[in-house]
Amino acid sequence: MRQFQWTKAHSTYLPEVDAEHRYLFRMADELHHAVRAGQDKEHLRTLMQTLIGAVEEHFAHEERLMESARCESYAWHRQQHDTLRSKGRHYLELFDAGDAHAPVAFINFTARWFRDHMGLTDRMMGAQVRNADRLNTAAR
Ligand SMILES: [Fe+2]
Ligand SMILES: [Fe+2]
User: Fold this and answer.
1) How far does Cα 97 stand from its chain's mean position?
2) Binning pLDDT at 50, 70 and 90, where does residue 4 land?
3) How far apart are CA 17 and CA 24, in angstroms?
4) pTM of the predicted model over 0.90
5) For residue range 42-65, what is the model confidence (pLDDT) as tens digits?
6) How far is CA 32 from CA 8, 29, 129, in A?
7) How many CB atoms neighbour CB 21 within 10 A?
8) How many angstroms is it from 86 CA to the middle of ligand 2?
9) Mapping DSSP to helix (H, G, I), strand (E, B) and coil, where does residue 97 land?
10) Which of 42, 49, 52, 74 lies at a C-alpha separation of 20 to 30 Å from 93?
11) Which regions of the chain does DSSP assign to beta strands (E)?
């Protein structure tokens, strides 16, 4: 079974966010395949960095959305983002220091984090952002 598979259960009903989530799943899946295929260190490092970069951009986007919608759960949500941000840096450092297991540990952590965060936290954000949009439109 694929470890990274986007399904409707992940949908935030914010099309741009959902598209970014799908992309993150695709990148994580690619890294997973590369590890299993025994790809060389340089290649794995590039894929890890690509995934970390895509995660960074995606988090910044969500945080902008939450700020403009004045989401109550912003601080809580951002704390969760910060956890994955620092784990990404951590596993990349471990890999650079010669820990060959780091990509697998990163994949496993990310798979669990994606499932928990996208399934609940991001969906709550989706509802709050859509609600704020509706209120703004009604006030115009
Ligand atoms: Fe998020
Ligand atoms: Fe997200």
Assistant:
1) 25
2) confident
3) 10
4) yes
5) 999 999 999 999 999 999 999 999
6) 22, 5, 32
7) 20
8) 16
9) coil
10) 74
11) none
Q: What angle do CA 77, 19, 58 make, to 5 degrees?
A: 40
Kindly indicate the confidence band of residue 137, based on its pLDDT and cuts at 50, 70 and 90.
Answer: confident
pLDDT digits over 24-48, tens only?
999 999 999 999 999 999 999 999 9
CB 4 within 8 A of CB 111: yes
If one counts every other C-beta atom within 10 angstroms of the C-beta of residue 63, the result is 16
> What is the CA(94)–ligand 1 centre distance, in A?
25
SS3 category, 8: helix
Treating both helix axes as pointing N-terminal to C-terminal, what angle do 74-96 and 41-69 enclose, rounded to 10 degrees?
A: 170
Locate tokens 């601080």: which residue? Answer: 75
DSSP 94-131: HHHTT-TTHHHHHHHHHHHHHHHIIIIIHHHHHHHHHH
What pLDDT is attached to residue 119? 93
Ligand closest in space to the Cα of 16: 2
Read off the tokens for 129: 């952002």
> What one-letter code names the amino acid at 48?
M
- Crossing angle of helices 102-116 and 15-36, rounded to 10°: 150
